[in-house]
Each structure stands twice: as C-alpha cells, then as structure tokens.
# Entry
Amino acid sequence: MARFAGKTVVVTGSGRNKGLGQGILQRFADEGGNCVVSDLTIGDEAEGVAAELRARGAKVATIACDVADAAQADALVAQTVATFGSIDVMVNNAGIGFMMKPLLEVEAADWSKVIAVNLSGAFFCTQAAARAMASAGKGGRIINIASQAAKTGFPHLAAYVSSKHGMVGLTRASAIELGSHGITVNAVCPNHVTTALGAEQNAYFSKLLGFASVEAYLANMAAKNPMGRPGLPSDTAAACAWLASDDAFYVTGEAINVAGGEEMH
Ligand SMILES: NC(=O)c1ccc[n+]([C@@H]2O[C@H](COP(=O)([O-])OP(=O)(O)OC[C@H]3O[C@@H](n4cnc5c(N)ncnc54)[C@H](O)[C@@H]3O)[C@@H](O)[C@H]2O)c1
# Structure
C-alpha cells in the first residue's frame, strides 16, 4: 500500500540508528513517502539511516537542523520544499531526555536547554511547516512526539516532563488555529522505548530504583504493562502513519497514548 506516494515527510532528530525518528521514517518509506532525515548534524550515522531508507525504495534528503534555532527550522522547511516540491507531514521528534537530576539540583541552563529543544523546537518547526503548508493550500499534518511524560510526572525529569506537557498545549493551540488550512496537529505519547535516549534512562532509573540490573528493571516494566512489553519504534511509527493518512483527517488536537495501556488518559 503506497498511502504516502508523492508526499514528503520531515522527521526532526531522525539521524540516530534505532531512534524513534528512524522507525517513523521507515514506516513512511515503506508506504511510498519521500523522506527527510534531519538532525543536529549529518554524519555517518545519519547517512546510514538515509541509505537504509533508500534501500527501501524511498527518495531521501538529509538536512542538518538545530530545531532550537528558528532560522534553521525555516531553512529545513525551505530546503525540503526546494528538493521535493512540498512538505506534507512534519514530525517534531527531536528531543533531549537524558538530563536526569533531582528537582532541587536542576540548574537554569539544564532547564533552558531541554525547553529550548523539546518545546521551542517543536514550536519553531510547527510554525515553519504550517506556513509552507498554508501557502501551498493543500493542507498537511503536524505530529508532535511527546511522551508518557506529557501525561504524568516522573522523578528527576522536571524539565523533560514540563516540556512534554507543554507539547500537548502546543498541539491543542496549533490545532485550533490551523484547522482552517486543512492542517491537523496531534501528539503521540509513547511509553518507554529502548533507543539511545531510552538506554540512558534505563541505566539511571534502574540504579535510582534499586534494581539489581537494567535487565531486571526492564523485566519489571514489561510485567507492569498490560500488553506485556515496553514500546517499540514501530508502535509510534504506526500511530504517526495513521495520523498522517486520509483516515485521520477529522482527528486533530489529540494527544494519543501509544503505551500498551500503561497510560490511559
Ligand atoms: N525512547 C523513549 O523511551 C521515548 C519515550 C517517549 C518519547 N520519546 C521522545 O521521542 C523522541 C525521540 O527520542 P529517541 O528515544 O529516539 O531518542 P534519541 O536520542 O535516539 O533521538 C533524539 C534525537 O534528537 C536529536 N536532537 C537533539 N537535540 C536536537 C536539536 N537541538 N535539534 C535537532 N535534533 C536534535 C538527537 O541528535 C537524536 O537524534 C524524543 O522527543 C523523545 O523525548 C522517547
């Protein structure tokens, strides 16, 4: 099924092997979409992600972008349109989730960095993408990769949790203003996925919570999940593909849990 043939999908922070961004682009590539791999820098790892997508048959561009810089977000969208002729789906996936510290030890710089990337970055890319989509007049889809941390609190992750809750506010506010342009805006809220970021969290929280090993921590997580396992990039990717499809045209302003039932509101 080539639901996204002729459509162009940008995923920020997608240059890391086994990251959620890679998983999302793999799904769009498999369904015929043109893929933009974007990350802070485009090095060997990002080129590897791009090469794997090309091997799936996708047309792929790699574009460096620091999402915390509004001018770079604008340039990402402009270069995408110059390369493929349109931007149809923007997935705000870039994120920092590895700054774990007790609340009372969080420094102003830590806080600002996480908010700048996770929340301001999603805002800048939403604005840049929506301007291009609105001027093309064909609608579009914006998907914010939030988190279970957008729905509930976690210890030692104050800035992360705050930024992810903020992404849900951004999703709702953007959805209201962009609906008249045929643009939907939704958030996806995954539970734990063992990516590079997830592995750092596993190492930290398994110690903090007194587990004998990371494996024991993960086994406990699986046992507590109604579906019996943590998340996979492909779970999030499937939700993104649905939200970007014609079937989800009437769904906007939502923050959808993709968490095996671990989170239900
Ligand atoms: N892994 C999980 O358990 C989990 C769960 C819920 C939500 N998420 C969210 O999913 C998204 C992807 O996370 P992941 O687990 O794949 O982590 P990851 O660390 O593998 O990927 C994050 C990517 O963001 C990039 N990035 C960081 N700062 C950036 C910036 N300023 N500009 C552009 N790119 C930047 C990194 O280089 C990296 O490629 C994040 O927003 C994360 O918060 C992850």
In short: Residues 108-136 form the longest helix (29 residues).
